[in-house]
């Protein structure tokens, strides 16, 4: 949330120069307040787990947030009870006439496939096109970040020689950027993917900025300059045991997968995983809700 101080106070100019959000009395007195409408297109197989992870961070704010959960019609989850989906989820056709302050599109375990081969690709592209006019700001997570960059900007994904799997150090490219404000000089975040996007392709799109990256994990956070689109290649929303569960799942399937890096003490899978990205996730999701959505979305969503 912004700090409200008199414009004449010296700190007002100092903080403004640092790109810290300060608000004078005139702007504060004209602000209308209402709940934020956030939709989540949940593409993860275990939808209840993904819901819990995202809602944990979306609730860590003084802002009131109303959530709408969306599932695809062209592919029905086999890992979530149908009763749960029927009770709590909508289809795109049910909400397409509504407008939302924000949309989150989750990752999905389909990155080895060509985008057009994914069962729900046509439905997803319809939703991403709809988001241009009906959503103020959209976060795309992991595979969805690659799908969004490909659909909106023609940016390809590339296969990795081995899975990017673990918790990696990252840095911020612009410490004054609103979305990454408050992150440490070095911070950690999980990745779990078989493909990547490359800097040279992103730099060809003048609308995009690379806000954060990693020496080992590569590009991490990309956003449009107006923050209407945010693309995060990792999984900040993951909880302590998510990578462990994925590792066990992959081993049981017979996949040749390495132990997640920088995750277990001494790479001992019997040890409790290190949970060193909670603060990062809280900051980034909080910054998105506040700076990218709340402070900029119109009070009357019909004016979007």
UniProtKB/TrEMBL annotation:
Active site as annotated: 142, 235, 237
A Gene Ontology molecular function term of the record: homoserine O-succinyltransferase activity
Compartments, record wording: Cytoplasm
Site (Important for acyl-CoA specificity): 111
UniProt feature coiled coil, ranges: none
Function of the molecule: Transfers an acetyl group from acetyl-CoA to L-homoserine, forming acetyl-L-homoserine.
Family: Belongs to the MetA family.
Protein's recorded name: Homoserine O-acetyltransferase
Organism from which the protein derives: Clostridium saccharoperbutylacetonicum N1-4(HMT)
